[in-house]
C-alpha cells in the first residue's frame, strides 16, 4: 500500500495533513504507536479514536511526513490492520506538540472491532516475576493483549466505554498509562492488584470463602481434591475439573447429563499437548495464536491414556487449548494434570456470564465459583477449529474471532440475517462488510431464545445501525424465523441449503454460476420436504436443485435424529420393504419393530428426507456403531473415526437416475455394505462408504459441468469426507472451495442469508 500523500509539496515547506484510517486500529496500541511515530519524524498534531477508526493530524516537513507514512505501513503494531486510508491537506494550525486527544463518537460505528487477545509473552514474564508489581495478578494486560470485545459496551474503544470504567487507576497505573515509553501507554485495560478487578471464591450457595490470592489458592486446592469449579473466564463461566481424576470427570458428566460427548482439555504447555496428541505445524500455530481456540487434534494413542479416554471416549480426536488468560496460566502452573474446561451451562442453554445466574443455573453442577468483579458485556464461548485438508476450519466461531468482519463485493447496508435454529448466529451488514455474531448455540430453550434476542439488540446498538430488511430461514418453525417476522421491515426468506452455499461463496467472494454441494442433517426444502443431500446450481437469479440423494423415511420424525437406528430402519424399508427385519439386526424389540413397520407402511409420522447426515446415521447404526445419539453427530463422528484408520481406494456401487433433478441411488451401496458386514472389518466398510460419497460427488459434478464448486453443510466438518471429495473433484478438473473462517455447519447460515440479499433485492 502506497501511503504517501499525492499532492506534490516541496520538502522544505511545512505541511498539515489530516489522515483518516479504518481497520483494526483500536485496542492494538495504535494511538501510542502514532505518538511515537510523530515524535520520531518531528511532527506535531494529534491522534484520536473515532467511531470509524483513527483520525490523525500531522504538521511538519513533507519529507518527514513521507517517512512517517512509510513507517505507518511497515511498523504498525501487532494485530492491527489498515483497511482504508485517506489523506487530506489542511491549513496549518501551528500545533506545539503531538497529543492523544479525547475520542469522538460521531457518525457510523466501525465494522472493525478487535476480538479478545490471549495473554502476550511480556505480560506472562511479569505475571511470574516476583519483582513485578503485576506478580501473580490474574488480570494483567497491556496494549497488545487482554479482553477487548467481551468488555466493550460501545465504540470507539476507550476505558470509559468498557466494563473497566468502574476501576479508577492508582498512581502507578496512571503513570504507566501516560508514559510514552511504557508498554501500557494508553492501554485501556491497565490495572493492578491495588486498583483493578479481583477474585472471589464462593461456595455453591454464594457464600464468600476467600478473596484475591487466597481465592486462587483455594480453587487450586479444590481442583486437586476433585471438585468442580465454575470459573469466570474472558467470555463467560467455564466448568473446570482435574482431567486425571476419573471420578471427578464422571461426576461432571453425570451432573451435566453428558455421558459421552467429548470435553475439551486445557493443558499447561505445548509439550503437555504433544504428550497427548499429534500436532502439525498449522495446528501448533493456531494453538499459540492470539485467538487461542480449542483445536481438535488426533490422539497419540486412542484409548491408552486415562485422561484422553475420559475426556473423549471412543473417538480419536481431542479438543486441546492452551491457557489464554492470566487466570488460566496461574491455575495451570499449579496443577500437574490438564483440566477439563467446558462451557458452564446446561444442555441447550447459553453460557453463564453473571455471578447471579451462575449460582442459580449451575446449582447442582458446580461445587464452587471462582469469580471476579469485572463484568462481561456479551457471552463468548471458546471457539473450536479443526485442520481439514491442510487448512484450519472454524467449527464454532466465538471468542477470538467473532468481532472480525467479512468483506463483500458491493455495499449491502441495512440488513440483518436471523440464521437458523441450531448453532445459531446472527449477521449484520455494515456498508461492504458483514459482522457475524458469536456462536449462540441451539435455540431450544427459553434462556437461549432470550439470549438470541439480547444479542440481536446488542448488534444493532453496538454498530449503531437501523436495519430495514431481515433475512431468515424459510423454515417458519425456527424461533429465529418467527422472531424477525414480528419486526417491522422488509422480510426475505432464504432456503436453508441455498444459504449454506452462499455462505461459502461469501467467504471466498465468489459470484455465480457455482455448483453447491450441500450435505447436512436437515433443512426445509422448497417442496416442504426435508432436504440435506443437495447439489444446487447457483445462478444470479437464485438456485435450482440439480441433484439429490434418493429419499427415505424417518420413522418418528424428530426422534430419528436422536436415534440413528430409526434412520437405518427407514433406509432399509425404502430399499427392501417389509423384509427389513431379515436384512439387519437393529436394537428394536419385536413390539417396537412391529409398530414402526406399520408406521412406515402407512406413512404415519414418517417424513421423507434426502439428508446426507441421516444417511451417515443409518450406516453407523447398521454397522452397530451407534443406535442412539447421546450428542449431536455422534454416529457420524464414530463412522469418520473408523474411516480415518485405513487408506483404501475401494468404493461401493451406486446409480444416477432421472433428470431435473438427478437422483443418486444409494441402494446398490447399501446392499454391498450389508454383504461386507459379515466378511470385512468395520474400518474398511467405513472407509469404502466415505470413498463412495466422494465418487458420487464427482459423477454428479461431471453432469453439471460447472467449474466452481462449494462444499457446505455440517457433513463437511468431517475431515475424511472433505479430503476424499476435494481430491476426487480436483482430479476431475474442478475448482473446489471449502469453509475456513466460517463454519460449514449452521453457524454460517446467517452470512449466506446476507449474501442472498444481493440476488433477492434487485
> Got a strand count?
32
- Helical content band: 25-40%
Instruction: Quote the CATH topology of the largest domain.
Output: Nucleotidyltransferase, domain 5
CATH homologous superfamily caption of the largest domain: ATPase, nucleotide binding domain
Number of helices: 24
Domain unit count:
4
Average of the residue pLDDT scores: 94
Per CATH, the architecture of the largest domain is 2-Layer Sandwich
Helix/strand class: alpha/beta
Q: What's the story with the biggest beta sheet? A: 12 strands, mixed
Proportion of strand residues: 15-25%
Distance from first to last alpha carbon: 34 Å
> What are the low-pLDDT stretches, counting only 5+ consecutive residues below 50?
5-9
The Rg value, from CA coordinates, equals 28 Å
CATH C-level of the largest domain: Alpha Beta
Shape: globular
Report what the structure shows:
The chain folds into four domains: 14-100, 2-Layer Sandwich (Alpha-Beta Plaits); 202-372, DHBP synthase; 405-494, Nucleotidyltransferase, domain 5 (2-Layer Sandwich), CATH 3.30.420.360; 547-737, Nucleotidyltransferase, domain 5, CATH 3.30.420. Helix content is 32%, strand content 22%. It is built from 24 helices and 32 strands. Helix 14 packs across helix 24, helix 20 (634-643) packs across helix 22 and helix 22 (682-704) packs across helix 23.
Amino acid at each position: 500500500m502506497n501511503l504517501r500523500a499525492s499532492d506534490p509539496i516541496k520538502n522544505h515547506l511545512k505541511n498539515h495533513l489530516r489522515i483518516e484510517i479504518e481497520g483494526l486500529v483500536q485496542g492494538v496500541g495504535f494511538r501510542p504507536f502514532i505518538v511515537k511515530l510523530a515524535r520520531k519524524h518531528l511532527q506535531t498534531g494529534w491522534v484520536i479514536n473515532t467511531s470509524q477508526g483513527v483520525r490523525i493530524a500531522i504538521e511538519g516537513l513533507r519529507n518527514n511526513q513521507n517517512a512517517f507514512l512509510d513507517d505507518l505501513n511497515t511498523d504498525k503494531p501487532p494485530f492491527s490492520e489498515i483497511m482504508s486510508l485517506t489523506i487530506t491537506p489542511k491549513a496549518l494550525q501551528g500545533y506545539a506538540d503531538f497529543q492523544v486527544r479525547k475520542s469522538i463518537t460521531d457518525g457510523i460505528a466501525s465494522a472493525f472491532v478487535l476480538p479478545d487477545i490471549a495473554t502476550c509473552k511480556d505480560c506472562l514474564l511479569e505475571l511470574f516475576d516476583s519483582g513485578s508489581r503485576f506478580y501473580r495478578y490474574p488480570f494483567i494486560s497491556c496494549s497488545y493483549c487482554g479482553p477487548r470485545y467481551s468488555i466493550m459496551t460501545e465504540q470507539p474503544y476507550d476505558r470509559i466505554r468498557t466494563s473497566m470504567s468502574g476501576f479508577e487507576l492508582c498512581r502507578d497505573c496512571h503513570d504507566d498509562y501516560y508514559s510514552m515509553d511504557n508498554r501500557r501507554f494508553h492501554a485501556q485495560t491497565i490495572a493492578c492488584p491495588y486498583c483493578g478487578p479481583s477474585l472471589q471464591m464462593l461456595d455453591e450457595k454464594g457464600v464468600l470463602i476467600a478473596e484475591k490470592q487466597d481465592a486462587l489458592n483455594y480453587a487450586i486446592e479444590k481442583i486437586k481434591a476433585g471438585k468442580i469449579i465454575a470459573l469466570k473466564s474472558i467470555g463467560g463461566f467455564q466448568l473446570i475439573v482435574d482431567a486425571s481424576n476419573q471420578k471427578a470427570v464422571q461426576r461432571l458428566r453425570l451432573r451435566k447429563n453428558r455421558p459421552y460427548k467429548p470435553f475439551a482439555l486445557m493443558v499447561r504447555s505445548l509439550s503437555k499437548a504433544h504428550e497427548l496428541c499429534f500436532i502439525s505445524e498449522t495446528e501448533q500455530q493456531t494453538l499459540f495464536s492470539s485467538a487461542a481456540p480449542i483445536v481438535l487434534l488426533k490422539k497419540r494413542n486412542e484409548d491408552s491414556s486415562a485422561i484422553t479416554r475420559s475426556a473423549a471416549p471412543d473417538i480419536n480426536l481431542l479438543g486441546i487449548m492452551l491457557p489464554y488468560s492470566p487466570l488460566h496460566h496461574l491455575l495451570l502452573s499449579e496443577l500437574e494434570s490438564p483440566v477439563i474446561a467446558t462451557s458452564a451451562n446446561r444442555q441447550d442453554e447459553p453460557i453463564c456470564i453473571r455471578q447471579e445466574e451462575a449460582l442459580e443455573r449451575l446449582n447442582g453442577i458446580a461445587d464452587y465459583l471462582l469469580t471476579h468483579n469485572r463484568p462481561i458485556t456479551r457471552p463468548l464461548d471458546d471457539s473450536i477449529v479443526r485442520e481439514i485438508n491442510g487448512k484450519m476450519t472454524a467449527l464454532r466461531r466465538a471468542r477470538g474471532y467473532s468481532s472480525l468482519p467479512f468483506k463483500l463485493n458491493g455495499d449491502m447496508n441495512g440488513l440483518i440475517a436471523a440464521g437458523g435454529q441450531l448453532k445459531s448466529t446472527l449477521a449484520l451488514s455494515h456498508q461492504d462488510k458483514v459482522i457475524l455474531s458469536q456462536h449462540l448455540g441451539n435455540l431450544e430453550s427459553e434462556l437461549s431464545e432470550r439470549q438470541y434476542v439480547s444479542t440481536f439488540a446488542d448488534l444493532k446498538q453496538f454498530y449503531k445501525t437501523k436495519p430495514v430488511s431481515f433475512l431468515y430461514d424459510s423454515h417458519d418453525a425456527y424461533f429465529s424465523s418467527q422472531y424477525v417476522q414480528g419486526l417491522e421491515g422488509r422480510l426475505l426468506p432464504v432456503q436453508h441449503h441455498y444459504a449454506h452455499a452462499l455462505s461459502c461463496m461469501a467467504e471466498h467472494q465468489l459470484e455465480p454460476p457455482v455448483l453447491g454441494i450441500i450435505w447436512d442433517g436437515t433443512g426445509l426444502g422448497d417442496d416442504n420436504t426435508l432436504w440435506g443431500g443437495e447439489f444446487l446450481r447457483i445462478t444470479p437469479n437464485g438456485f435450482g436443485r440439480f441433484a439429490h440423494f434418493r429419499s427415505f423415511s424417518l420413522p418418528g420424525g424428530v426422534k430419528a435424529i436422536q436415534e440413528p437406528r430409526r434412520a437405518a430402519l427407514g433406509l432399509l424399508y425404502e430399499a427392501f420393504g417389509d423384509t427389513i427385519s431379515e436384512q439387519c439386526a437393529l436394537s428394536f424389540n419385536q413390539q417396537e419393530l412391529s409398530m414402526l413397520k406399520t408406521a412406515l407402511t402407512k406413512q404415519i409420522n414418517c417424513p421423507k428426507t434426502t439428508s446426507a447426515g441421516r444417511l451417515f446415521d443409518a450406516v453407523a447404526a447398521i454397522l452397530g456403531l451407534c443406535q442412539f445419539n447421546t450428542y449431536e453427530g455422534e454416529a457420524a463422528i464414530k463412522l469418520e473415526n473408523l474411516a480415518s484408520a485405513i487408506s483404501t481406494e475401494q468404493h461401493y456401487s451406486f446409480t444416477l437416475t432421472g433428470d431435473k433433478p438427478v437422483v443418486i441411488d444409494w441402494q446398490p451401496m447399501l446392499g454391498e455394505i450389508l454383504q461386507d458386514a459379515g466378511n470385512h472389518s468395520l474400518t474398511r466398510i467405513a472407509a469404502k462408504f466415505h470413498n463412495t460419497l466422494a465418487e458420487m460427488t464427482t459423477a454428479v459434478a461431471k453432469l453439471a459441468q460447472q467449474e466452481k464448486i462449494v462444499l457446505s453443510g455440517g457433513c463437511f466438518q468431517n475431515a475424511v469426507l472433505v479430503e476424499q471429495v476435494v481430491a476426487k473433484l480436483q482430479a476431475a478438473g474442478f475448482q473446489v472451495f471449502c469453509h475456513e473462517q466460517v463454519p460449514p455447519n449452521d453457524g454460517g447460515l446467517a452470512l449466506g442469508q446476507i449474501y442472498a440479499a444481493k440476488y433477492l433485492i434487485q
